[in-house]
Amino acid sequence: MGRELVQKQQQSAVSYTVEQLVAVNPYNPDILPDLENYVNDQVSSQTYSLDANLCLLRLYQFEPERLSTQIVARILVKALMAMPAPDFSLCLFLIPERVQMEEQFKTLIVLSHYLETARFRQFWDEAAKSRLIVEVVPGFEQAIQAYAIHVLSLTCQKVPRSVLAEAINIEGLSFDKFLEHHVVNSGWILEKGQGKGQLIVLPRNEFNHPELKKSTADSIPLEHITRIYPILG
Amino acid sequence: MAAAQDYDDGAVHSQPVDGYDPNYVPDSAKSFVVHLYRHIREKNVYEIHQMYETSFQTLSDRLFKDTPWPSVDAVAPHVDNDHVFCLLYREMWFRHLYARLSPTLKQRVDSWDNYCSLFQVVLHGVVNMQLPNQWLWDMVDEFVYQFQSFCQYRAKMKNKHEQEIALLQQYDQAWNVYGVLNFLQALVEKSMIIQILEQEKEGLEQFTATDGYDYNGGSNVLKVLGYFSMVGLLRVHCLLGDYQTGLKCLLPIDISQQGVYTSVIGSYIATIYHYGFANLMLRRYVEAIREFNKILSYIYKNKQYHQKSSQYEQILKKNEQMYALLAVSLSLCPQVNLVDETVNSQLREKYGEKMLRMQRYDDEAFTLYDELFSYACPKFITPSAPSYVEPFVNYNQDAYRLQLKLFLYEVKQQQLLSGVRTFLKVYSTISLGKLAAYMEVDEPTLRTILMTYKHKTHAIDSEGKIISNADIDFYIDDDMIRVVESKPAKRYGDYFLRQIVKLEGVMNEMDRIKLD
Where does the protein end up (chain B) (predicted)? Predict the structure, then answer.
């Protein structure tokens, strides 16, 4: 237990330094090994830093001989996990086309495509075939499930059980446990639908309940009001 | 400033026209440098600006139409051999060369050396001049432009002569991407411009209020170069395809306000063009549309004042490119209410028909997206050195092709959304089953299409918040789709603020009138 703690402290010491490097001295080929190690750290400790990964991809752009496809693949998997943020595309913009033509990257691009177009069933099918690529990164499944729930929450007030189960790729008893967990922790409500089976009522937000949308369009920042303070006297 | 001509120079041995004697200094040129030198020593910014902006152009047109200016060695004796003035003169010398002629490899390398020396001098803080913002902006702008030009030039390996390739390998430090980025970064850091802007917000510093000029007897050069370098960094990162970092570099500048970046029209345009483009690639369409609208409106009202400027053509070119980008953004995110009437009428004139066809998302549409993107995008670069192993290929288009491909990929993913929009405009509620039948898909497929619509129209902004780009929105209640009416926001608050200030102005005016 003690050793794990020290290791974790060492990891956080490393990540502190790397983030500083990226902020202060990013255009420096010498930090490339640090950035590569940091990618591996992100994978094992389930953290994520887009800025550091973009910095590394840039350095690979400047010195293509030093590009490690394994590291790039890991960066892309982490970026997928960051959805709905567009990180995956941002990374692709920096990866040379001939690298993107390799099998594992083609697969990752297909996976991203399925997620971008909400084709969850096809996504999980393809991911199952590509265990080697995606299972190296802990937390992958949970991250994608969170994204699926995010998209469903944007779209629906209530979602049929079967639709949700397919989107997050959980069935049977595990699915019931999953539902229970979210009823307790995320405010989900289970309802009996009209003959079609169970409905899950997702939490209310401004996207699936437009009446909750704050009308920010007419709000005025304080700085603008200060302009007329002298007039108001 | 990037020349009006396309810098696509295949010329290798382009020497200036016969009859050019680098040591011959015509009287007007001599007079020019003598006066410019004196004005710089006396910190007479207004005179410097007149000479830089007007006299230099007039003399170039009259005496040096297609030859370089006299060499710095011929000019130096007239200006006390002043080291810094010579660096400045050389910078203008090379800029003139790039604009009117095609630089040789040796000239490109020499220009790089000159920038290194000039920036080193500035970074060491030994410069005690006040130069016009126009000049300082042009330095940064030209620096990035020559870098871009060099990368394009170097990537065309196919028809290069042996000596040229040998020279390229020999001068591998010239226009090295690390060097370029680190100089810009160094200028930002050494000038402490980020801290200055922060402190200005709290009233502890004056920078924007004085347009960057130093009224305490000091120099504005490092500070303003540092400021413009932030725009330079945004530009370089866009050329590399790193839009996220580019926007980050620009963050200290508040583009919702006037600032030093708006004091020079070239800088204003470059900033907003790249900001808008980066947001477009980040799928933040509303943000891109808003900023393009503002600058296009500004150009429309102000371009007449720049007709005599050497930059006029470049202003017009960027104007056209931004209309193309606006057309693309609006086709992907149809929120025409964000656009001013003047800009909208110009847009409809130039791209009205094409926009209609782009929103059909058929094969022809993709050709149009390709056409507009290719016309308006930055000249992307491959920053790495070429492989000096045969066979030699031209890879100068690789970067552009990748960005185009990824952009069209995104457009393709949004293909089905226009179909959804058409139906949502017509119905206030419709069942999933019915809509699926109309769109000729099964219900599960319809669900994925609707979720895609929601995902693509809700972007993540720089703070991780979800922002809606959607012109038409909906939500699903069990199996009914309910369309949300979006009324355009009437900005009463802004309107009242403006009227209050205006009325106060009128009342003050009236108070000032003395009645006999």
Answer: Cytoplasm
Q: Which CATH architecture has domain A156-233?
A: Orthogonal Bundle (1.10)
Phi and psi based region of residue A107 (left: phi greater than 0; alpha: psi -120 to 50; beta: remaining): alpha
Q: Where are the alpha helices (DSSP H) in B71-175?
A: 72-75, 83-100, 105-123, 133-154, 162-170
All residues at 6 or more sequence positions from B507 whose CB lies less than 8 Å from its CB, including other chains: none
DSSP A29: G
ipTM of the complex: 0.88
Asked whether residue B254 falls in the same domain as residue B354, the answer is: yes
Its domain, for residue B346, covers 103-405
Are B205 and B139 in the same domain? yes
Q: What is the average per-residue pLDDT within A121-135?
A: 89
- Residue A185 at interface with chain B, using a CB cutoff of 8 Å: no
CATH topology of A2-140 equal to that of A156-233?
no
pLDDT of A218 reads: 57
> Looking at domain A2-140, what is its CATH homologous superfamily?
ARM repeat; domain 1 (1.25.40.250)
Residues on chain A touching B177 (C-beta within 8 angstroms): 27, 62
How far CA B134 is from CA of B236, B261, B503, in Å, comes to: 20, 10, 36
What is the identity of the amino acid at B159? N
Rounded to two decimals, the pTM is 0.89
pLDDT digits (tens, 9 = 90+) for B284-340: 999 999 999 999 999 999 989 988 888 899 999 999 999 999 999 999 999 888 999
What Cα–Cα distance (Å) separates residue A72 from each residue in A16, A77, A92? 22, 9, 10
B-proximal residues of A, 72-91, CB under 8 Å: 84-86, 89-90
C-alpha–C-alpha distance, residues B81 and B34, integer Å: 11
Do B143 and B268 belong together in one domain? yes
A204 reaches B (C-beta below 8 A): no
pLDDT in tens, A56-66: 999 999 999 99
What are B426-480's pLDDT values in tens digits? 888 999 999 999 999 999 999 999 999 999 999 888 787 888 888 888 999 878 8
